[in-house]
Design a protein that fits this description.
Radius of gyration: 25 Å
Strand content: under 5%
Number of strands: 0
Mean pLDDT: 73
Shape: rod-shaped
Number of helices: 2
Length: 63
């Protein structure tokens, strides 16, 4: 009689923990991207206020 082939328990634990670490890294990356996006929007709104309307804004962005 053959025993059913099963992976060692410690191997499953290792793979699941590595997935968790990867998820944490991914979440951190998304947060950093989001913060950079927010900073960019703030910068754009400030530069828009400093420019004389849309034309000055476009000139500033194009520069």
């Amino acid at each position: 009689s053959q025993e059913p082939i099963s992976r060692p328990h410690h191997e499953e634990e290792t793979s699941s923990s590595s997935v968790k670490i990867h998820q944490k890294k991914a979440i951190r990356t998304v947060r950093n991207d989001h913060q950079a996006h927010v900073n960019c929007l703030i910068l754009l709104s400030k530069s828009f206020a400093a420019c004389d309307g849309w034309q000055g804004f476009y000139n500033a962005v194009a520069a």
